Amino acid sequence: MKKKMPFHRRFILPYRVFVDKVNTFDGSGLSDSALKEELRNSSHCPRRYGLIKETIIRCKGMVLFDTQLSAAYAMEQGMIAELPTGEGKTLAAVVTALSLALSGEQVQILVFNDYLAARDYKENKEVFQFCGLSCGCILQTTKREHRQAAYDCNILYITAREAGFDYLRNFMAFRESGLLRQHFHTAIVDEADSILIDEAGIPLVLAGEEPTIDKNYMTVWKTVKELDAQDIEFQEKEHQVWLTERGAVHAERLLGVNNLYELENAHYLEMIHTFLEARLLYKKDRDYIVKNGTVFVIEHTTGRVAEGRRFPDHLHLAIEIKEGVKARKGSQIYNMMPLQFYLLKYRRLCGMTGTAWSSRKELKNMYDLSVIRIPPHVPCIRRDHEDVILSTNQALYTQVYHKIRQIHQTGQPILIGTQSVEESEALAGALRKRNLPCFVLNAKEDEKEAELIALAGRPYRITISTNMAGRGVDIKLDKDAVTAGGLFVLSTGINRSFRIDQQLRGRTGRQGEPGESQFFISMEQPLIKRHVIENTGKVQIRRIQRMAEGEDAQMRYLLEKYSLILEKHRRMITQYREVVLRDIKSVHFFETNAPVLYKKRVAESGTQGVLCAEQQLLLFYINQHWVDYLAAMESARESIHFAILGGEEPVDVYQRFAVRAFAEMEEDIKKDVLSKLKTCKITEHGVDLRGEGLIKATNTWTYMIDESKSQFAKVPSLLKYIRKLKGTQL
Ligand code: ADP
Ligand code: MG
User: Fold this and answer.
1) Quick one: which of 110, 405, 494, 513 has the fewest CB in 10 Å?
2) Ligand 1 pocket check: which of 66, 474, 476, 508 to mutate, most ligand atoms within 8 Å of Cβ?
3) Cβ of 459: how many Cβ atoms within 10 Å?
4) DSSP 3-state helix, strand, coil percentages of the chain (rounded to 5)?
5) Ligand 1 pocket check: which of 4, 62, 188 to mutate, most ligand atoms within 8 Å of Cβ?
6) How far, in Å, from the CA of 128 to the mean position of ligand 2?
7) What pLDDT sits at residue 520?
8) How far apart are alpha carbons 138 and 159 in whole angstroms?
9) Is-contact 537 544, C-beta < 8 A?
């Protein structure tokens, strides 16, 4: 059973000495109960790993590879382990989780999506139970009442975003029993680079319905539909659109307003902008799909439909109106937080992925995490062919069809990586017309995705996929596919980052299997077109990619700078709210701020009732004014570029604004709570909020904002616009 891997010695395996010690341990003589007993009492590390190795042999019939032991130990040390796809990272995480949980830590394994959470939980819970540890799993569909028990398990499988959303939801609790206790001991992040880097800056948002829909929406939409090409300046590749001088005049006439740029018309201008975006920048079946009269967002990184997510601000509503589906009420944001700050709450953060090395500097900067590179347990024999560069899209597809046919004839399975859902559909159509049967993996086949990707390794199979759809699911080859040369991964373009290209490549050549990969790149691809350089050859193409990587890193850095102050405020208010919720007696808010009134009300209604009322009102108004604060910060970000006119650093202006907004919020909370406490009816149960006309948020939903497409993407164009304005004035 146990294979000998002599070539191990030829690679420098991190923790070689440690792994050798683990391997000298032979637990096969122990009875099950003796093994369990030893596990409970082992504190010494190589020995504990030896016991875990034996446990996994018994529970799963698998012998841990040295590479897995190495990765597990690196993670226990708080690092990111880079281990190629198909090397068994799922099981490595089990080892880390076991080792830490046995020493009393709670471990959360943050996986990439719900499908993987359910799968990994099901596959591994018995190992944990064998060791006397409890194991839970939370999915998007898990009911509130089952979540606490899952959070209290020794090991929990959950997606990072779901855990983050639960954290945000705690802000809406009005009773201590409404708070979910999340233990922030250890997080093991799977597909770590995607979550820690690509998704890090994206805020998790908890939103709810706004009381009413603004009737002006339909009027503005009609206006926007009337605008023609000369009214609009439109830059598809930069994802920007705005009104021209002529357009503004036209819109003013249609709306019957004097000057759109006057402050009192600011809401019109904002709406026009949103509708222009909805009309020109957001495309059906690329950015969203319409199913059963509802607009669903397509996640760009995965090409999957994002359940329960909405486009930010009023954009979603605008798209609903554009598509003529029943528009829901507008949304307002109750709380938000970039994923990065959520992840930083854990005492120990570690992770695993097939591709982290090229982003190690960012991981160090953002999280103080180090990356350790672990070679595959069998050398990789995949053949990565040279990039093929073509001058037009048409030439590219001609070559791609030709290549696909050629490969297909040999029986080799093919996985084609495309840049968008739209492209994958078009490509599938074109291939079918050419009698090349294929399967498409994208947002529309959400449920079948895992199934389809698992079958992508059969002979003659052609699978078309968006970016990273079906991640985390292994593509297994059968014997015939291996003989035919293994999986051929073919991409119709390069991604914004080399790392993501590598993820696609990593789909083939797993565990020493044969495989090939090749990228076809057209000079007409948006990424390349943006950076026209002379004599674009292979080297330059990859240079453009590095430039894009640099831009993205800078954008993330800028975002982080902007988010920091808000995060500080969010922490302050959250902490205060929790104290109010858990221990109102210690707050002394009413007593210190209005001692005379306090005594009067206590005399009338008793201490208990007054304390209760104080608590309820504080919680209510904190939430209400936090909404206003967030909205104010949002519009500050939208308008911050004007600071440039005054020659100031926008971030500084923004931070000053934030400090002021926070102080105002504190003032407003105080004022409103005290004035309500003066007039409201207090019983022994406190105050009847509804009776006092104070309506709590009930219908809430969650989503993630794709920042790269919103606020900050506008900054450069607005700067250009402002410069233009200045130019005309001078
Ligand atoms: P990764 O997440 O690294 O891409 P997975 O965790 O999905 O890889 O594992 C890939 C496959 O390898 C799975 O089918 C898993 O059961 C198998 N596997 C993992 N570890 C071992 C092992 N030690 N021996 C044999 N098979 C293993
Ligand atoms: Mg995996």
Assistant:
1) 405
2) 474
3) 17
4) 55, 15, 30
5) 62
6) 19
7) 95
8) 8
9) no
Residue 645 has a pLDDT of 59
Ligand 1: which of 91, 473, 504 to mutate, judged by most atoms within 8 Å of the beta carbon?
91
The distance in angstroms from the start CA to the end CA of the chain is: 82
Inter-residue contact 423 to 473 (CB < 8 Å)? no
pLDDT grade for 396, boundaries at 50, 70 and 90: very high
Q: How many whole angstroms separate alpha carbon 531 and alpha carbon 551?
A: 12
SS3 357: helix
**Do residues 480 and 459 make contact, with C-beta atoms less than 8 angstroms apart?**
yes
pLDDT mean over 237-264: 83
Q: Is the CB of 64 inside a 6 Å radius of any atom of ligand 1?
A: yes
> Do residues 288 and 315 lie in contact, with contact meaning Cβ atoms separated by under 8 Å?
no
Q: Is 91 in the pocket of ligand 1 (CB under 6 A)?
A: yes
- Cα distances from 627 to residues 171, 386, 531, 571, in angstroms, run 12, 53, 41, 15
Which amino acid type is present at position 299? E
Q: pLDDT by residue (tens digit) across 24-73?
A: 999 899 999 999 999 988 888 899 999 999 999 999 999 999 999 999 99
DSSP label of 246: H
Q: How far is CA 442 from CA 245, 294, 423, 454, 526, in A?
A: 41, 18, 11, 14, 21
407 lines ligand 1 (CB under 6 A): no
Q: Is 663 in the pocket of ligand 1 (CB under 6 A)?
A: no
Token pair of 564 as six digits = 């920091």
Check if 63 has its Cβ closer than 6 Å to any atom of ligand 1: yes
**Alpha helix (H) ranges present in 42-170?**
45-60, 66-76, 89-102, 114-130, 144-151, 160-169
For the Cβ of 88 lying below 6 angstroms from any atom of ligand 1, the answer is: yes
d(CA 297, CA 286): 9
**Tokens at 374, concatenated:** 């672990």
How many angstroms does the Cα of residue 1 sit away from the middle of ligand 2? 24
Alpha-helical (H) ranges within 277-345 are 315-322, 339-343
Tokens 């920042």 sit on residue? 707
Q: 480 with 412: CB under 8 angstroms?
A: no
For residue 103, the one-letter residue type is S
Whole-number Å distance, alpha carbon 712 to ligand 2 midpoint, is 33
Supply the pLDDT for residue 730.
26
Cβ atoms of 509 and 380 within 8 Å: the answer is yes
89 CA to centre of ligand 1 in angstroms:
7
pLDDT at position 212 is 52
Ligand 1 center from residue 45 Cα (angstroms):
23
**C-alpha of 105 from chain center:** 26
CB 352 within 8 Å of CB 181:
no
Residue among 208, 313, 168, 269 at smallest CA distance from 711 = 313
Tell me the CA–centroid distance for residue 488 and ligand 2, in Å: 20
Best mutation site among 90, 355, 377 for ligand 1 pocket (most ligand atoms within 8 Å of CB): 90
Ligand 1 atom showing the smallest separation from residue 62 Cα: 24
Q: How far is the CA of 106 from the centre of ligand 2 (A)?
A: 21
* Protein residues with C-beta less than 5 angstroms from the ion ligand 2: 89, 472
Please give the model's pTM, rounded to 2 decimal places: 0.81
Quote the ligand 1 centre to 73 CA distance (angstroms). Answer: 17
Q: What is the pLDDT of residues 159-178, one digit of tens each?
A: 999 999 999 999 999 999 88
Q: Of 50-54, 442-446, 453-457, which one has max mean pLDDT?
A: 50-54
**Do 659 and 568 contact (CB within 8 A), yes or no?**
no
Band of the pLDDT at 382, cuts 50, 70, 90?
very high
Helix (H, G, I), strand (E, B) or coil at 320: helix
Whether 112 lines ligand 1, by a CB cut-off of 6 Å, is no
Question: Please, which residues have CB within 8 angstroms of residue 325's CB and are 6 or more apart in sequence?
Answer: 290, 293, 294, 295
